[in-house]
Design brief:
The protein is an alpha+beta fold and about 180 residues long. About 45% of the residues lie in helices and about 20% in strands. The strands form 3 sheets. The protein has a 4-stranded mixed beta sheet, sandwiched between helices. It has a two-stranded antiparallel ribbon with strand order 3-4. Strand 7 and strand 8 form a beta hairpin. It is globular, with a radius of gyration of 20 Å. About 10% of the residues have low confidence.
Length: about 180
Amino acid sequence: MKILASKFFLFLFISSVFGLSTLNAQEVNWLTWQEAAHLATTDKNPKKIFVDVYTDWCGWCKKMDKDTFQNAEVAAYMEANFYMVKFDGEGKEPIEFKGKTFKFVPSGRNGYHEFAAALMGGKLSYPTTVFLDEQMNMLSPVPGYQKPEPFLNIAKYFAEDIYKEQNWKTYSKASK
């Protein structure tokens, strides 16, 4: 009986630990580029587009997925203000954008996708997050891993059109 009771309490303990750790995580509704582009051109009130450019081998990309994008506050804000796209910088599928077809380019060990290179201004660095306006015009690529709070400040800068009236340096000083 003691063994059964101790196993039960161990089960409750493990369940509560894993249950609490998932309370703060939120799944993100990632779209493909094609889905986001379609929504941007057909919605009556289109959102801006956010693109997370990643690779399968990138440890910082995985860390940003877990720490930042699954953060409940970040996920809710992004979902409300952006069409969120997950784009593999080494993906093989062609992408149509503004009358041009972007393809995978074999290069070195892995190669790269021309669309990723275009979004990142030719500077392939993972992770890179990219913000586009409602007409799919580039606002800015943001290279590197971002923790939830700094990332949310960047997202608000673009989502709330602060970039139209204030440069980043002034905004980032005021938001600290």
